[in-house]
Every structure is written in C-alpha cells, then in structure tokens.
C-alpha cells in the first residue's frame, strides 16, 4: 500500500469493543454468474475470527439474499417486482446463512441468523427484545448475521437498504464501530465515476449540508444503497456515538486492510456510545413516571451504583419496561433519570425485595437491577 492510500486513523476499528460490519451484495455475489464469491467470503470469515481473537465482538449485517436467490429462481436481470424480491430473498437467505455457517464453523465460531423488519427496530417492545437477544448472543461468543426479513417486508415497511439497517443495529447494541464494506473506498466531493476532479474525503468530523450534497444519488445495479443511504447511516451511527467507516470491500481480507490503514472515509462521533445514550436519557422531555427510592439507595446512586429493587420504596404513575422514568428520594426530590428495566406494576411488586427474589415474585427472571447504571443519569443540582 502506498502512503497516500493509507488512512491516518484505523484506530476506531482496532480499539472498538463491539463492531458491526455491513457486507454489500456486490461484494458477496458475482454480478455475472449470480454465484457467491466464496473465496472472498473465506477471507472475510478469517478477518472476523481475527477480530474475535483480539477480544472484539462482531456482528455482521449481510446483504446478498436477493442477488443470490434470483438466479436459482431463474429471474431475469433487471429490476424485480416486490413479490419477486420476496421470493428471491427466501431462496437466497438460506444459502447465505449456510455459507456463513460453514465458513465461520471452520474457525469454531457459532453463527446466529437474525432477520429483522423495520418494526423490530422502530417499535420499542420489539426493539428491546431484539437488543436483548443480540446482547445474549454476543455474551455467549456467537457472531450474529443479520439481514432484513425481505420475505415478509412490504414496500411501505421496509428498509430496503442494509446501510441504514446496519446503523440502527449498531445504535441498538451500543456498538463503537460500524464498517460499511462497499464497492467504493469512501466519500468523494462528487461521484468519481462521473467527475474526474472529485476529491477523496478521509475524515468527516461533522455531517454538514455540504457533506450531504456530496452524496448525490443512485446505487449499484445489485445493492440498494448508494452514497445517500451511507450518509443516512452515518448520521444514525455518529448520533449514537459510533464511528462509521466506508471502505472498499472488494479485496481479500477487507477488515484487516482497514485495520492496516487502507484508504477509507471515517465519520467521527463527538462522544462515546455511553455518553450519547446518557445525553439522550437526560434530554427526555417527558419521563413517564417515577421510582421512589430510600435514602440509602439515593446515596448509592450518587456514587455511581445501579438501582436495585431492595432500595426502592414504590412507584408513581404508569410506565412500561424501557421507559425513561424519574428517580426521586422519599421527599420527592428528583435525583436521577433512567431507563426502567421493569414496568411500574412489576417494579411495585419487587420494591424492597432482594434481586434473588425477583423470579419468585414475578414468575420470570428479569434483570437484577431496576435501572442499570449505564441507563442512569444523575440530575444536576442547581
Ligand atoms: N436485504 C437485501 C438482500 O439481502 C439487500 C439490501 C441491500 O442491498 O442493502 O438481498
């Protein structure tokens, strides 16, 4: 690699704890033959195993189901009707999942398939469930492979591109790095295929209207995302404190190349995922209800601890699991805000109990903490 091809900053990938990698259709599937680029995928699997060995968690968001499936159904080139894409996805997804399983099995890595629809990331209850499953899989050492559930997604309720889906997944699981492996090596001031004067942008500290204007339109014939969906993805990712990199995936070992400083564009967030999450909690305009805590718990919270059921006296108002609530002391003074892991009804039932009693009282094994410290922000004393 020559020096001008090197990026100054592969650090976000090297240092990330949780990495989401989006793999585009054009990389996975040979455009002429409609077959899987197996050799390339082997080198990607090898890179994933390398990241895992470094102690990093990896989630793959993989396209390619439709591109792979259409050949097997004899669907001609050109734009597919929605029902044809749905059918092609059903045929292609099983092949895609099989390929990932086989190649990651060789490294002793368990692969988990997750098919998401727009509702799974946009509706709170389903969002929490999807997030819970992903966190559990990662804790157990698996590599989730995610795609949109194209077979049931209809035109109005679908992402249609995996760039934004990958960004929502990164946000959902608090990933610190998202790599979009694409057929282009990054962002240019104009489309380099049309404008020879287009300049490469290695680093985007802020997504300004000028940056958006650089994105132009149109994607490749196979994938659905162009630069525009990548910028939309970057907005979601950096808004959640996650670094995003647009990198050319076509060479073997695409992730190792990024880690070694291959040319790519980095979008840089202003804070970490945790800090962004806390800002968001602090900024909630309408906390739904309140958890009333005793003086001991109030002290523990101020020292940075989580809120356990034992320190709770009661609740105020109705709220659901996942809602932001106020945490108040016995005198009614707000001391913090946080996301409750239990509904008001359940929180009321376990108030004052030990965490080990939760299962017996509620009939299910929920989280030990009512509000985990990562989901909690102390209220500033004026
Ligand atoms: N979900 C689509 C597929 O697997 C791809 C979407 C995209 O191209 O980003 O074929």
Structure description:
With 382 residues, the protein is of the alpha/beta class. The chain folds into 2 domains: 2-273, Acetylglutamate kinase-like (Carbamate kinase, 3-Layer(aba) Sandwich), CATH 3.40.1160.10; 283-378, Archaeosine Trna-guanine Transglycosylase, Chain: A, domain 4 (Roll), CATH 2.30.130.10. It is 38% helix and 18% strand. It is built from 15 helices and 15 strands. The strands form 3 sheets. The chain has an 8-stranded mixed β-sheet, with helices on both faces. A hairpin with a 5-residue loop joins strand 13 (324-328) and strand 14. Helix 8 (162-172) packs parallel to helix 10. The N and C termini lie far apart (55 Å). The model is unreliable at 1-7 and 217-223 (pLDDT under 50). Bound molecules: glutamic acid. Glutamic acid is lined by residues 25, 63-67, 89, 147-148, 150, 161-162, 223-225.
Q: Give me the Rg, rounded.
A: 23 Å
Poorly predicted segments: 1-7, 217-223
Give the termini separation. Answer: 55 Å
Mean pLDDT: 90
Major sheet: arrangement of strands: 3-4-2-1-5-9-10-8
Give the CATH class of the largest domain. Answer: Alpha Beta
The general outline is globular
Structural class: alpha/beta
- What is the subunit arrangement here? single chain
What is the third-level CATH name, the topology of the largest domain? Carbamate kinase
The CATH H-level homologous superfamily of the largest domain: Acetylglutamate kinase-like
Please state the second-level CATH architecture of the largest domain: 3-Layer(aba) Sandwich
Order of helices and strands: HEHHEHHEHHEHEEEEHHEHEHEHEEEHHE
Q: What percent strand?
A: 15-25%
């Amino acid at each position: 690699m020559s020096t001008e091809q090197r990026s100054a900053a592969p650090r976000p990938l090297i240092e990330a704890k949780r990495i989401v990698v989006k793999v585009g259709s054009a990389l996975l599937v040979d455009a002429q033959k409609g077959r899987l680029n197996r050799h390339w995928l082997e080198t990607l699997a090898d890179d994933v195993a390398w990241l895992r060995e470094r102690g990093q968690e990896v989630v793959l968001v993989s396209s390619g189901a439709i591109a792979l499936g259409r050949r097997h159904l004899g669907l001609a080139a050109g734009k597919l009707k929605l029902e044809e894409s749905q059918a092609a996805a059903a045929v292609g997804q099983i092949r895609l999942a099989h390929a990932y399983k086989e190649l990651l099995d060789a490294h002793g890595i368990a692969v988990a398939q997750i098919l998401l629809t727009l509702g799974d990331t946009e509706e709170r209850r389903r969002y929490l469930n999807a997030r819970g499953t992903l966190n559990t899989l990662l804790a157990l050492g698996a590599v989730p492979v995610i795609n949109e559930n194209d077979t049931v997604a209809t035109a109005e309720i679908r992402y249609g591109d995996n760039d934004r889906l990958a960004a929502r997944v990164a946000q959902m699981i608090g990933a610190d790095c998202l790599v979009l492996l694409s057929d282009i090596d990054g962002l240019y001031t104009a489309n380099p295929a049309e404008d020879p004067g287009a300049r490469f942008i290695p680093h985007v500290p802020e997504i300004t209207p000028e940056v958006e204007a650089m994105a132009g339109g149109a994607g490749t014939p196979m994938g659905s995302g162009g630069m525009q969906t990548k910028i939309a993805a970057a907005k979601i990712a950096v808004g959640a404190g996650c670094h995003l990199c647009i990198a050319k995936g076509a060479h073997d070992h695409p992730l190792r190349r990024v880690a070694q400083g291959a040319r790519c564009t980095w979008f840089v967030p202003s804070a970490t995922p945790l800090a962004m999450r806390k800002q968001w909690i602090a900024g909630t305009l309408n906390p739904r209800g309140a958890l009333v805590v005793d003086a001991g718990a109030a002290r523990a919270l101020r020292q940075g601890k989580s809120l356990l059921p034992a320190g709770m006296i009661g609740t105020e108002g109705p709220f659901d699991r996942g809602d932001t609530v106020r945490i108040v002391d016995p005198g009614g003074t707000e001391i913090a805000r946080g996301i409750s892991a239990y509904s008001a009804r359940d929180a009321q039932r376990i108030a004052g109990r030990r965490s080990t009693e939760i299962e017996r009282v509620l009939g299910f094994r929920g989280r030990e903490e009512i509000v985990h410290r990562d989901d909690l922000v102390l209220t500033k004393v004026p």
